[in-house]
Design a protein that fits this description.
alpha+beta; Chemotaxis protein chec; globular; 3 helices; about 150 residues
Length: about 150
């Protein structure tokens, strides 16, 4: 199991670097920093089903979500979280999940993204256990990616 988790972490780091570099022109560096609590955090999730069942989630603070949206859309960063910011975060989660699905198992399907923001919320995938939580630094700020598995094996 340790080998599979390590392989997934390397795949995750490659996918995140590719998506952030291609879509936002941002260099991504792995970071050991832990994800902040849910107060004022935004989480974009895409659910995976098939031979591997779970979710890929992108967690950011509101300021980073706005900065990422500005980079993604090629415009100044919005001053507050808006529908455009939520759409960009959903699209980032969608691209990360879409690229990861091939590394997890053949034939995986992905959902449309969901985005939750505000204070004191939690996102829970029933019967799931977290297999990876990785922090990343960019010039526009940090983000955290978690991958949870609701199946019996990863």
């Amino acid at each position: 199991m340790e080998t599979a988790t390590k392989l997934h972490r390397e795949d995750l780091e490659t996918v995140v670097a590719s998506v952030f570099g291609t879509m936002m022109g941002l260099e991504v560096r792995p970071s050991p920093e832990l994800c902040p609590g849910a107060d004022g955090t935004l989480t974009a999730a895409v659910y995976l089903s098939g031979e591997w069942v779970g979710a890929a989630c992108v967690h950011v603070e509101p300021e980073q979500a706005c900065a990422f949206a500005g980079h993604f859309l090629g415009m100044p960063a919005p001053h507050s979280v808006s529908d455009d910011v939520r759409d960009v975060m959903g699209e980032l989660a969608n691209m990360i999940a879409g690229n990861l699905k091939c590394t997890l198992a053949p034939g995986i399907r992905i959902s449309v993204p969901s985005v939750t923001d505000g204070a004191e919320y939690s996102v829970r995938v029933c019967r799931a256990r977290e297999v990876i939580r990785a922090g990343f630094d960019t010039d526009a700020g940090p983000c955290w990616i978690s991958l949870v598995n609701a199946g019996e094996a990863d």
